[in-house]
From TrEMBL:
Keywords: DNA-binding. The keyword Metal-binding does not apply. This is HTH tetR-type domain-containing protein. It comes from the Bacteria. Residues 82-101 bind DNA. InterPro entries: Homeodomain-like_sf, HTH-type_TetR-like_transc_reg, HTH_TetR, Tet_transcr_reg_TetR-rel_C_sf, TetR_C_16. Pfam families: TetR_C_16, TetR_N. GO terms for molecular function: DNA-binding transcription factor activity; transcription cis-regulatory region binding. Residues 59-119 form the HTH tetR-type domain. PROSITE patterns: HTH_TETR_2.
Amino acid sequence: MAAPGIGVGTGGCGLRRDGAAGVGGGFRCSLSAFAFGVRVRLSVFGGGTGVGAGGRRSDATRAAILAAARERFAQDGYERATIRAIAADASIDPSMVMRYYGNKEKLFAAAAEFDLQLPDVHSVPRDQIGATLARHFLVRWERDETLPALLRAAATNEAAVERVREIFGRQLLPLVTAVSPEPGEVMFRAGLLATQMLGLALCRFVLRLPPVAALTPDEAAAWLGPTIQRYLTGSPARD
């Protein structure tokens, strides 16, 4: 009896009992069905040729890790927070945290990143810059829990303190440079602006002082705008 062979035709592939070429009796698998099966298996096990579903899952996992890390760092501080606890908060395995971020230091740096998304002051009337910034900061912080969590962590952790300094220093300086009447006063004016903004964030989101926590963006602009304006473009009182 002839040894079995594989016959290939235009419709698919068949295992022939007689070893002859062509398409005939015996076990046959359709190439299209085979390809479909491969796609199904890749889909089930997380593979595939595209990045759609896998990319979305990856983004969702990263977001869950960062959200859990911010809360854990704010609650426990940098030293006491652990990768295991953060993973448990995110309902994932600790190895996934390490896969995406490497170690706790890198995870903290990623979790503490915060874009102030400052407006273009060149498009704002000069006498309205202070009010515009006061309103902007309040609206910006309401959309993102990163800064409040970072401020809570900064109360007990030097790494968080340095992160706050870096964020505000790097992002505020260009804005202040653009509007300061005296180049030599840029650092001083930026520091004063930071005290106003960080003080507002601390009292509103961390301490939750009732009058400050209830401020609307327009009220913040009305009350804080003139002070911020003076820090940016005004002159100190002279005796």
